[in-house]
Amino acid sequence: MKPKISDVAKVAGVSPTTVSRVLNNRGYLSEKTKKLVYRAMEELDYVPNDLARSLYNQRSNLIGLIVPTTSNPFFGELAFHLENICDSKGFKVMICNSSNREDKEMKYWDMLSRNQVDGMIVVSYNRGVFNERKLSHPVVAIDHYLSEQIPVVGSDNYAGGKAATTLLLEKGCKEIIHLHGPTSLNTPANLRKKAYEDVMCKNGVRPITLEVNEILNKQNQQRVIEQLFNTYPNVEGIFASDDMLAASVIREARLRNIEIPNQLKVVGYDGTEALQTFLPQLTTVQQPIEQIAETAIMKLVEMIEEKDQSEVSYETRLPITIKMGETT
Amino acid sequence: MKPKISDVAKVAGVSPTTVSRVLNNRGYLSEKTKKLVYRAMEELDYVPNDLARSLYNQRSNLIGLIVPTTSNPFFGELAFHLENICDSKGFKVMICNSSNREDKEMKYWDMLSRNQVDGMIVVSYNRGVFNERKLSHPVVAIDHYLSEQIPVVGSDNYAGGKAATTLLLEKGCKEIIHLHGPTSLNTPANLRKKAYEDVMCKNGVRPITLEVNEILNKQNQQRVIEQLFNTYPNVEGIFASDDMLAASVIREARLRNIEIPNQLKVVGYDGTEALQTFLPQLTTVQQPIEQIAETAIMKLVEMIEEKDQSEVSYETRLPITIKMGETT
DNA sequence: CTGAAAGCGCTTACAG
DNA sequence: CTGAAAGCGCTTACAG
């Protein structure tokens, strides 16, 4: 059996109360008692039981994290930073990969509630699920509106879309097409499209946005990309709303012997570390992933700590940077 | 306050014992009582407290996962599969990114122990840390030996190294160099090198292995790669022990105007999804990541369930496949 | 078929 | 400076 506080107490010749106080460094303790207790803990290889502690304290120091999948470098990198920051603040992270499925998101949500998480960070494209659930604990969303009560943190999508489009125009592209994820979802990411369309119109060029309906669906992506090249054989610039789309565009262009950047210029969005090792030549709009993670946790902790949530701003947009590559 | 079992009991007009039994579907219950209890739970929005449950049951259904970082697509993808499989078996996952630092691994290990994990999956390049810790719960390692007591699951590294080297030879390369991670660590991954050297010797060619000392250190990698090209300007084939190295090799070759695959052929190792979207043209040895995850969890659960651990095989090597790209 | 009591391993207000 | 008692929210052996 694992030793418990009462075992330590017996060995140290004190009461469990005293051991607990030594453990938490609370109240007045004589040096002698402390040493006795430390020695006993050492001798028994005592490990405190955080479950029991959390139960009594009504505080788990646990953060639930729901992402589509850490297989995707963007979410993998986001999860890394979120966990790291949580750790530095004394929080533990329970991770959930929803594959962006509503049913899984719901199950994970309930599971996390049962596990008494102090708060949750959610990356979901399915607003509906969360909109209706009563919030028994604070939640912060990344780059997607989940409900009126759930603050959102993300990159400055409008600035990103604007920068990408402007760059393509400056490089002399006339026919510029935007490849975008599903817009039926009301998310801040739609501002990438909005910015693209605004800039295009302002420059007297017709904006053309093609939509990829399903996120995480490679075949669907591929179909849309092929259609793009078939319908617009003279396309000179493509602004893809994420780097994986951009990579697929580059691949298709190569198959069609379209030279990049001479005949076609491509700009992506995200700028993960993985991209920078695997496809460093891609010009892309880089999201400040670590800063997004920091801000999200900061908000969440504020909500957890102070029960007055009126002070937490609903939406935060963090500045992007353009990473110049060889595709523009 | 959140409702607890006794609140439900009051509303349903039964005892807490009965509510608990309904919750766990244990023992004889009259249909009428069940309905009463369900209705009460519904009415109160009752959510069971898994912390309390785990405390009593001496079983958390929690798995701790320590990886270097989910930013790296290989670990990100591995984490995804591990979590998914855990979830399907009713386990929750607490995730820890160690950045491959011994001090962090130790802290995380202790943290997970305090949280009463039923078991741990560890990916670590630092054998020492774990070798000395007494195992208070089952542990399974991925692709690295941590101690005599900790089973290892990974890809068949020898077969992978052999396949890669053989391919390069078949494609006509004479001077083939192997880029390898730190070999001071005694890990199964060293078999990639061993296989390379065996195949080279068997074919009467001199094996040359260059070592990257620090994992996750980009500058160090870059230095070694530049040195490779400077020292061996006529290199015809490079077998890199992971895809990120291979990608850096390709980048450097491009800077030096070395044509791939005409002048130089490159084979990587891992074959993650991210690679397949970002750099699909790379020929690589593909690890069966999902299968590795499955096997690891299977072993871990066996160890958790049956206390007789003699039946669990110490090492498992899962079959690799060569994914042909355009770099060979 | 159902309930009162004890206990999982902690912590804290209260008393001394 | 230290301890006995109660309680965090559950579950289960025991009794009825």
What does the model show?
The structure is a homodimer of 328-residue chains. In chain A, 46% of the residues lie in helices and 16% in strands. Chain A has 328 residues and is an alpha/beta fold. Chain A has 3 domains: 5-48, no CATH class; 60-154 and 289-316, Rossmann fold; 157-288, Rossmann fold. In chain A, the strands form 2 sheets. A 6-stranded parallel beta sheet of chain A has the order 2-1-3-4-5-11, sandwiched between helices. In chain A, strand 8 (237-240), helix 11 and strand 9 (265-270) form a beta-alpha-beta unit. The first copy, chain A, is elongated and about 85 Å long. Chain A binds a DNA duplex (16 and 16 nucleotides) through helix 2 and helix 4. Chains A, B: It comes from Alkalihalobacillus alcalophilus ATCC 27647 = CGMCC 1.3604.
The structure class of chain A reads alpha/beta
**Anisotropy-based shape of chain A:** elongated
Classify the beta-strand content of chain A into a percent band: 15-25%
CATH superfamily of the largest domain in chain A: Response regulator
The CATH class name of the largest domain in chain A reads Alpha Beta
DSSP helical segment count of chain A: 13
**CATH structural architecture of the largest domain in chain A:** 3-Layer(aba) Sandwich
| Residue share in helix of chain A | 40-55%
Low-confidence stretches of chain A: none
What is the radius of gyration of chain A?
25 Å
Rounded to the nearest angstrom, the distance between the terminal CA atoms of chain A is: 65 Å
